[in-house]
Amino acid sequence: MYALFPNYIFERPVSDSAQPGTSNPHMRSAGEPAFPDTSLDQFCCTGDKSAVAHRVPPSLCDFLKRDDVPWRAVQNARMIKGVHTDKAPFVRFSDGTEPPLSQAIVSGGLVFTSGQGPLDPATNEMPADFAAQATQVLSNLVAVFEAAGSGKDRIVKLTCYLSDRENFPEFNGVYREFFADCSPLPARTTVVAQLVREGVLVEIDAVAEV
Fold it and tell me: What is the model's pLDDT at position 60?
């Protein structure tokens, strides 16, 4: 039954065979409410336009109402988790403070990254060459996805920002080579923008399945 819903929606229970009323601490007993502060019907209602309810498909809601579903699974259906990895840059401001963002957020079975730049996390240096910057940005992006339990082959959408439209043909060449082993290719939007950090020629944010 759990295979019907990917593990990115909820954690697998301690024991699939555990029954209500046993000593399994992750099980709720028959009739016990899924959420102490609200009803599961209200939470799963497709007409509810709250920030969380629309992310839970009706088929999963029906499953979560079962008495043999663990508490942990019910709670994680609406979990939002931040992602951090040292394998991608997380650049502090000049005064030493951290930027007000997560490298990525996992929610609803998807990973949403913040914009990734061309800084090499190992050396804290940034290539001057555009192609090298583009390759480093894509590598940083994949590092964040892998830290979230995803990967390059699960990317579904990228938004790419170039500082100069003249670099667009070269960007396409780097991009095509980087994703040569992925089919189908992710959806993509590319725009020309004035990037915030000095010397940055390309930045990318993306969405992937967990």
Answer: 61
